[in-house]
Amino acid sequence: MLRRSFPLFALAAVLPACADAQPTSLRTAQHEARVVTVAEGLQVPWGMAWLPNGDMLITERPGRLRVVRGGRLLETPITGVPAVRTGGQGGLLDVAVHPDFAQNRLVYLSFAKPGPDDREGTTAVIRGRLDGDRLTDVQEIFEAKMWSTGRGHHGSRIAFDGKGHVFISLGDRQVAPRGDLERHPAQDLSTHHGKIVRLHDDGRVPSDNPFVNTPGALPEIWSYGHRNVQGMVYDPATGQLWANEHGPQGGDELNLVEAGKNYGWPVIGFGVNYGSGSAIHTGTTRQGMEQPKHVWVPSIAISGAMVYSGTAFPNWRGNIFVGGLAGEQLVRLTVEGSRVLSHEVMLQRQGRIRDVRQGPDGFVYVAFEDRGNAPTRIVRLEPVTR
Question: What is the pTM of this model?
Answer without folding.
Answer: 0.93
